[in-house]
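Hi V.,

You were right to ask for the full record rather than a summary. Here it is.
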Amino acid sequence: MSTSSHIPATPSTPRAMPPLDADERTSLESWLDFYRTTLAQKCDGLDEHQLREAAVAPSPLTLLGLIQHAAEVERNWFRRVLAQEDAPPIYAPDADVDATDGGFDLTEDITFDRALSAWHAEMDHARKNCADRALNDTSPFMGGQVTLRWIYTHMITEYARHCGHADLIRERVDGRTGV
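Predicted structure:
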């Protein structure tokens, strides 16, 4: 992925607006980084307890769970699917890849710093796995082929949807909106 735009080390770093006149690849990478940073910013300034607060009953969805899930989907699409790597789930390493909850479940031993570190590591892998591939390059998926372009597009929609969830959770936790 582009080296000019990547996720900051801390969620409080400002996000870059995707360029308005870029080529297709730069646009896709920039929008993906924009939403990655947006999700990180939704967690900014919250303590461990607040990051574990669920949106609203009966949903168990939390900001920490969204960060964990983001790491899992990065791993799935950019390592398992795109690069065909054998990469077990992060948060349920002994589980069948297709049977995991996608990282949403919280355990006492996972802190935000640990989850953030795992997420950053997966984004680093994603960038490396994408760097030398063209948008039309394909990988086997579900009995067919999937392009890198499709994976980027899917990941942008994945993050956009979850940033909407994060908006609602953050407002529920401390009233903060926007970002």
